[in-house]
Amino acid sequence: ESLAKNMSHRKFEAPRHGSLGFLPRKRAKRSRGKVKSWPKDTTDKEPHFTAFAGYKAGMTHITREVDKPGSKAHKKEVCEAVTIIETPPMMVVGMVGYIETPRGLRSIATVWAQHLSEECRRRFYKNWHRSKSKRAFAKYEAKYTEADGAAIQAATDKIVEHCTVLRAICHTQIKKIGLRQQKAHIMEIQINGGKNMAEKVQWVKDKFEKPVAVSTVFEDNEMIDTMAITKGKGFEGVVTRWGVTRLPRKTHKGLRKVACIGSWHPSRVSYTCLLYTSPSPRDS
């Protein structure tokens, strides 16, 4: 009602279409989702993972009973669309320690496992097939046998002594998905819990080169957040892309358009104006 009173003349209210919080809608630089905020660390729990990686397998629908007092659908069955995510066990292959600085977190030490699988090492090559040596991490692997692993122990002690945040380096087992791709996806997963940093570091080291199941990270019926990259939908108009209302039937030169794209002044099209273009894959 307040919106209608402030407007000069309008038969119906017309909120803007499309959220400006997701601008710019363009191709994402990264090929997978990025966790931009992690759960707050607590010392009253055991060390645990705070995220997991999976692959979208498809969609289906479910029927469930709504528990929302005040809603018309309260205690009624509704049909909803759901996404199925395939989550084969992830492999822990390293850890990285961060210190807090005035400009944010900064990594100071990284420790890798002694043996890395082929699907993990493929990530460090642009073309695995045309590479001749395929000796990635061969020199690092030798550090475990040189001087009884003194260099590895020194990096581990540096993390324990200085770092405040610990993240495990894990990779997916993409061969178990059945996709054409054989190059695993690698991500950092923050480790929360534990009384001190030494307990966290030892907990991660014990899991080196071992699989981690999704059931050890999340529980049944737990509310979680998902981060992903949308697939490209090609060149689309404003009606499909933003959901704006079509113009009247007799509109000149088409009706699937935005009629007014801004005022006379400032004499330019604002970034808030909805235009048609190609919504390439983006972060969501």
Overview of this protein structure:
With 284 residues, the chain is α+β, with helices and mostly antiparallel strands. The strands form 2 sheets. Strands 1, 4, 5, 6, 7 and 8 form a 6-stranded antiparallel sheet that branches. The mean pLDDT is 91. The protein is built from 6 helices and 8 strands, in the order αβββββαααββαβα. 14% of the residues lie in helices and 21% in strands.
Question: Which features would summarize this protein structure in a list?
Answer:
284 residues; alpha+beta; six-stranded antiparallel beta sheet; two-stranded antiparallel sheet; 6 helices; 14% helix; 21% strand; elongated
What is the structural class?
Answer: alpha+beta
Spatial separation of the terminal alpha carbons: 33 Å
Q: What Rg, in angstroms, do the CA atoms define?
A: 26 Å
Mean pLDDT: 91
Share in helix: 10-25%
Provide the fold topology.
Elements: H1 2-6, E1 48-49, E2 55-65, E3 77-86, E4 90-101, E5 104-112, H2 118-121, H3 138-142, H4 150-162, E6 165-171, E7 186-192, H5 197-205, E8 211-212, H6 238-242
Antiparallel strand pairs: 1-7, 2-3, 4-5, 4-6, 4-8, 6-7
Write a short abstract of this structure.
The protein contains six helices and eight strands.
